[in-house]
What we know:
Blueprint (H helix, E strand, L loop, with lengths): L1 H8 L1 H6 L7 E5 L5 E5 L1 H12 L7 E17 L5 E17 L5 E11 L1 E4 L2 E4 L3 H17 L3 H4 L6 H11 L17 E3 L6 E3 L12 H10 L5 H14 L2 H22 L30 H10 L5 H14 L2 H17 L20 H11 L4 H14 L2 H19 L7 H12 L17 H10 L5 H14 L2 H20 L15 H10 L5 H14 L2 H18 L1
Antiparallel strand pairs: 1-2, 3-4, 4-5, 6-7, 8-9
Helix pairs in contact: 8-9, 11-12, 11-18, 13-15, 13-16, 14-15, 18-19, 20-22, 21-22
Amino acid sequence: METDSKCNNSNIWNKVAITDPSFTAAFGKPGGFQGTSVSSTYHLLKATELWGPCGYKWGYDIIKEDMIQGPAVQFDSTGAPVTNSALHTLRIELYYPVSDTETGRIPGFGATPVIVKTATGYKTDDDFAKKSLSDALSNCFKALGFSADVHLGLFNNDQHVKIAKQLTGNKTPFIGHNEGYDSKFATVDNETGEIVGQPILSDSDPRVSGTLKAQLDSVRAFTSLDLIKAGEQQAGQKFSGVILDYVKSVLQSRKAEILQITKAAPESAPPPVAEATPVPSAISSDDDSRLSDENRASLGRIRQFDSIELIGLGKEQARKSFSGVVLEYFERVLEQQAEHLAIPPQPEGPIESLDDPRLTAGVKNVMATIAKFDTIEKLERGELQAEKTFSGEVLAYIKTYVQTLKSGMQSPKSEPAPKIEKVVEKASQAKPADSPITSDDDSRLTDENRASLGRIRQFDSIELIGLGQEQAERSFTGEVLEYFERVLEQQSRKLRAQPESPIISDDDPRLSEHALRALRVIRGFTNMELIERGAAQAQKDFSGEVLAYVRKALDIRKDCIM
Length: 562
C-alpha cells in the first residue's frame, strides 16, 4: 500500500515534469543571470491533456488584484512629478480534480511593472494584466510539477535536453502518452500503433514558436541557393518531426522562388507586378542605382590599388560586405585592376634559389629565424610550423633547407650541397638583429616592405587595419612583424581619433549593404533572445558610429517587444 500511495502522490508530477525543448527559450538578465523560460501556453496544453478543457474540471479564480503606486520617475521643468511608477499584482487560485469527488486548490501570485522605460521616455505596458496572470499561473503549475526539469536546473545539462527531446519531440508535443489518445494535432498509425503528428500548414499553427517564426522570416528573405543549402543542413541538426518537415517545406518554397526569379525566360510574358519582383541583372557601371555613394567611393579606391596584396584584401572585404550582383561587380572591378597591374605569372617547378619570386619577404624571414635554431628539436618544431603555414614548392624548399641544417648538426664535418650552402649564407645575412626597427630606413626592411608600409599609412578604415594585421601575421616574423604591427596600431589610433558625426538614418553612406541587411533582420526580431544574439553579433561585425546606430535599432526593437 505504501508503494501505491507514493505512485498516486507523484502521479501528476510524473506526467508533466519533462518539458518539450521546442517550447523553451534561453534568457539572460542584467548581472549575468541566465535561465530557461517555458511557454505559458504549453502549460495550459499539458493541463488540458490531464483534465480536459479549462473551466470544466479545472481552471482558476482571481482572488485579488491591486495596483501599487511607486515613486516618481518623470518630472516637469519645475521638478514636479508627472509620472509615477506602478506595479500590478494579482492573486489567483488554481483548482483541479484530485479525485471524482475532491478538488485541489493552489494559490499563485503574479506581478508586472505597469510603467516601463523606453528609448523615447516612459510608457504604459498594455499587456501588464496578461503578464501578471501568466506569472501567477506559472507559479501554480510549478507547485504541481509542471516543467519540473526546468525549475530544477536540469536544462543546464545538454544530455538531459537530448533525452527530453527524444521523449517529447519525436512524437507531437501536443499529446500525452495515453494509449489511443488523439487530437487535431495527431493521429494514430493503424499499422504501428504509434502516435504521429499532423503536418504543420502555416506559421499560425501553435506549434510554431515566436523564435521559429523569426527564423522562418529570415529563410523567406534568402537570396541564394547557397543559403538554402546551409539552411537545410542546419534544420536537420536542430529540428525533428513535423517541425522539421515544415521548415523544409518553407526552404523548398523559397528555393523555387529563387529559381523562378533567376530563370531567364525571354519568351514568357512579363509578370503582373514587374516592379515588385525584378529579375536581377548584372551591374555594368558605377552609375547603377543599386550602388550607394559609399560603394562608388570604395570602387574608386580599388582602382588605385597598386599591389596584389591590396587586391587580395579587397576581395576578402567585398565577400564580407556584399552579396548578389553588387558582390559580382566588385569582384569584376578587382579582377580588372589585377590585370591592369600586369602581375607577372609565377614560375613553375622546384625552387632552386633565393631569387625565385615565390620566396616572399615573409618566407625569407621564416628561413632566417630557422637558421638561428641550435637544436634538432627546435628545427623539427620550425618544420612543423612551416607545414601549417606554407604549401607546394615553397614548403618543399623550406623542408629541404631544414634537412640540410639537421645534417650539419648531426655531422659537423659534412659539407652542405652547393645550393643549400648558398641559402644558408643568404639567410644568415638576412638574420634580423635583436634591436627593434625604428624607421623605414632600417636595412632589415626590403623595398617591398617599405611599399607595403606606405600603403598602410593610407588606410582609411578600421576594417582595412584588421585585414592588414592578418596579412602581416601571415607574412612576417620577429622585428619586422613587430614594426608592421606598430605602424598598423599608429594608423588605427589616427583613424579612431578622427571625430565622426552620428548616423541618423538608413540613407547614411557609411551603412554598407551588410549593415543595412542586419538592420532589416533586427527590425523583424520577435523575442529577447534574438535581441541578445543580435547585439553580440553587431559587436563583432561593426564599429564606431555604424555600431552605435545598429545598437540604437536593437534598443528600439527591444522596447517594442517589452
